[in-house]
């Protein structure tokens, strides 16, 4: 079936609409970051650099690190941008852009989020690295897609909704696991395996109060006190669950790696956030080429 021009939008040079990438620009392993400047931080370590493109907040560099071809791309902040990035990455590898048809042989990408995060437990210290074994989405992105969602952990979600006395006016939380192979690959003594919530904003949706009151002032405390099968929620950010859900629906493998810059329980913040981020980048690259 031919995909119409209004649905699959291409630029005059044949590149995908937002990312401005061509299929040959993309590696099989993709590192996503929120901040476009972090793309430069990562690609500066590459041995070779073959692609440098940017459109809006989407900056993409492709090159090699110790013989492994990698793409690093900035998504900007939030689940709405994840919808754009994941769909366009998939289109680059699984849609014939010239014929506008889905390929018979589908390709699976490895998608590694390298991002910053806030800790929710007192013992999740700032500057520590957390891999999100499970993502809990507070956004409504996945609810717009039909099809088979057997990968969602409905029992976990139901227990969380009950514990939170969840406001029905908010989007219904969904729970999705990371790729087990990538989670095992990034299993290390200095990486804490955790549970990550994906929030739809930085201030109120993450329990921050400045001038506006919160609908539920105890939200973060309730999230931190939730326990499921002996495990607690470790951290919160704004992309992980959306990446996991979109990747699972599209047949890709995903894992979120988080450097904890703020501990919300203790009210502390990293004294050297750039050094902490650089340590996460080094760790990620070294494990990817092992």
Note down, in words, how this protein is organized:
With about 290 residues, the protein is of the alpha/beta class. It has one domain: Rossmann fold, CATH 3.40.50. The chain has 7 helices and 15 strands. The protein has helices spanning about 35-45, 80-95, 155-165, 180-185, 220-225, 240-250, 275-290; strands at about 30-35, 50-55, 60-65, 70-75, 95, 100, 110-120, 130-135, 175, 190-200, 225-230, 230, 235, 255-265, 270. The strands form 3 sheets. Strands 7-13-10-8-14 form a 5-stranded mixed beta barrel. β14 (about 255-265) and β15 (about 270) form a beta hairpin. The longest helix is centred in the first third of the chain and has 16 residues, at about 80-95. It is globular, with a radius of gyration of 19 Å. It starts with about 30 loop residues before the first strand and ends with a helix.
Structural key phrases:
290 residues, alpha/beta, Rossmann fold, five-stranded mixed β-barrel, two-stranded antiparallel ribbon, 7 helices
């Amino acid at each position: 079936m031919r995909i119409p021009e209004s649905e699959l939008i291409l630029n005059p040079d044949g590149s995908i609409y937002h990312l401005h990438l061509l299929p040959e620009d993309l590696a099989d392993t993709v590192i996503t970051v929120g901040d476009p400047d972090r793309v430069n931080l990562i690609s500066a370590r590459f041995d070779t650099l073959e692609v440098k493109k940017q459109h809006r907040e989407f900056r993409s560099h492709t090159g090699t690190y110790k013989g492994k071809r990698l793409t690093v791309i900035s998504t900007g902040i939030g689940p709405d941008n994840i919808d754009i990035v994941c769909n366009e990455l998939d289109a680059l590898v699984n849609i014939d852009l010239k014929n506008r048809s889905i390929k018979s042989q589908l390709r699976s990408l490895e998608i590694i989020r390298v991002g910053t995060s806030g800790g929710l437990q007192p013992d999740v210290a700032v500057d520590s690295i957390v891999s999100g074994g499970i993502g809990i989405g507070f956004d409504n992105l996945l609810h717009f897609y039909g099809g088979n969602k057997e990968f969602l952990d409905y029992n976990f979600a139901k227990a969380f909704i009950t514990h939170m006395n969840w406001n029905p006016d908010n989007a219904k939380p969904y729970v999705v696991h990371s790729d087990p192979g990538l989670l095992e690959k990034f299993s290390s003594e200095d990486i804490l395996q955790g549970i990550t919530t994906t929030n739809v904003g930085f201030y109120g949706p993450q329990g921050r109060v400045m001038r506006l009151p919160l609908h539920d002032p105890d939200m973060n405390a309730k999230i931190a006190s939730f326990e499921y099968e002996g495990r607690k929620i470790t951290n919160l950010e704004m992309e992980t669950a959306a990446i996991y859900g979109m990747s699972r629906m599209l047949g890709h493998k995903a894992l979120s790696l988080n450097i904890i810059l703020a501990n919300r329980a203790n009210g502390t913040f990293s004294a050297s956030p750039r050094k902490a981020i650089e340590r996460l980048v080094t760790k990620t690259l070294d494990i990817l080429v092992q």
